[in-house]
Design brief:
Number of domains: 1
CATH architecture: Alpha-Beta Complex
Helix content: 40-55%
Distance between the termini: 36 Å
Structural class: mainly alpha
Largest sheet: 2 strands, antiparallel
Order of helices and strands: HHEEHHHHH
Radius of gyration: 15 Å
Strand content: 5-15%
Number of strands: 2
């Protein structure tokens, strides 16, 4: 049995589970894309780019009071929606919570059924990049701890 999902992520998964209609799921994704805060242009660098995505997807992360906060952007609305829902669900968690999170919640949303294989793969790659950023921040912060 996997650990329970963090509260915000669990709410997002439930929101998508309520929509069995593919069109409604896409509308929900586009809503997330529209509500993603603006991303600074200087964040669009090679080290912030998500590998394995057809679209251009960028993610930055910062550490504040023991929690991680992400920012991101994509040039494609569906990818931007996937990114936004992950940011919404993971912001404010500790590095350990993010690193230990199983990607199984991705299937629980029902989105992989609605997405093309490349978008579904991109969703997973975005999640892995968020985990990678959390790991880097965790390692850097432990180096600077007294």
């Amino acid at each position: 049995m996997s650990a329970p999902l963090p509260e915000k992520l669990a709410q997002i998964v439930q929101r998508f589970q309520r929509h069995s209609d593919v069109k409604k799921r896409y509308e929900q994704l586009l809503w997330y894309a529209k509500h993603l805060p603006p991303f600074p242009e200087e964040g669009k660098s090679p080290e912030n780019k998500v590998p394995g995505c057809i679209s251009q997807v960028y993610i930055t992360a910062y550490f504040q009071n023991g929690k991680i906060y992400f920012q991101g952007d994509s040039d494609a609305q569906i990818s931007k929606g996937l990114l936004a829902l992950l940011i919404e669900g993971l912001n404010g968690l500790t590095p350990t919570e993010i690193i230990n999170l199983s990607p199984s919640f991705i299937h629980q949303t029902g989105l992989p059924v609605s997405l093309t294989p490349s978008r579904s793969n991109g969703f997973y790659n975005i999640f892995k990049k968020l985990q990678q950023k959390a790991m880097v921040l965790q390692n850097t912060s432990s180096l600077h701890s007294p």
